[in-house]
Design a protein that fits this description.
263 residues; mainly alpha; Heme Oxygenase, Chain A; binds fe (ii) ion
């Protein structure tokens, strides 16, 4: 696989996702102009080097449980500000997936590192996930009419989501052999199934945001879209490099500097 964009398209094809050609072109160009550092061999080596230390790896599972839960809340909040109900429905389902990912990381932590935790700590870990589901979630309507975001801002967020989900997929691919190595033989199958689910979900997040970008190509300003894809790939690369300066961020699926965004 030559680079990150090819890897993303490979997984989208693998799961028979329908991908707009215009989107593929934009992604290839953005990654060529601003090559993502998270696709480089040095990052994989750095991740594996840290993951060998069990304490670091246990902490990274907890950090992921926290970040995915936070991400789920932010994504739901975003969905409420999106006027296009086709897009909003897809964004809500993304939020529910991330909420489930938070729980999955907590489950993996307890499975791979079984220990007696105080009830208070257990409750704290559980609370990382907002526990969203199709039946249980915050309101879908905007808080007020003023909260409805401008279409360009919505597209900007969706582009960032798309590029960040590609990076989340890469992390899941790095995580998979490490999870399998830490798992007890009797847990290995379950751990692999959870990893399959993570990889599938992250690919679906790339797919839906790519679909929204593809829809915008039909009616929107394509020059703006092209430039924003290029600029946002640079932003994501920068966020990634800032994050890996913090040891505990090397293994997180969601970039922390994301908090600085408008989501
Ligand atoms: Fe996730
Ligand atoms: Fe995701």
């Amino acid at each position: 696989m030559k680079n990150v964009s090819e890897l993303a398209i490979h997984y989208l094809n693998h799961y028979n996702c329908h991908i707009n050609e215009g989107y593929t072109k934009l992604l290839f160009e953005a990654c060529e102009i601003n090559p993502p550092p998270h696709g480089k061999a040095w990052y994989g080596n750095l991740y594996r080097q840290h993951a060998r230390k069990s304490e670091w790896f246990a902490n990274s599972l907890i950090a992921n449980a926290y970040e995915e839960g936070n991400g789920a809340r932010q994504v739901w909040q975003f969905s409420r500000c999106v006027e296009n109900q086709d897009f909003a429905r897809l964004i809500r389902s993304h939020s529910i997936d991330e909420s489930r990912h938070s729980k999955m990381f907590t489950t993996l932590f307890s499975m791979l590192f079984p220990m007696k935790l105080e009830e208070e700590v257990q409750a704290q870990l559980k609370a990382f996930s907002p526990m969203y589901s199709k039946e249980n979630h915050p309101p879908t309507v905007p808080v007020s009419a003023d909260d409805v975001m401008d279409e360009l801002l919505v597209m900007d967020e969706l582009i960032q989501i798309n590029l960040l989900e590609i990076r989340a997929l890469i992390l899941q691919l790095l995580l998979r052999p490490v999870l399998q190595a830490y798992a007890k033989p009797e847990d290995r199958e379950k751990v692999s199934r959870m990893s399959d689910q993570f990889i599938f979900d992250e690919t679906k997040h790339i797919e839906y945001s790519a679909y929204c970008i593809g829809e915008y190509i039909k009616w929107g300003d394509c020059d703006w879209l092209r430039q924003t894809m290029i600029d946002r790939q640079a932003t994501v690369n920068q966020m990634f490099l800032e994050d890996i300066d913090h040891q505990d961020s090397i293994g997180t699926t969601i970039l922390r500097t994301q908090d600085a965004k408008t989501l």
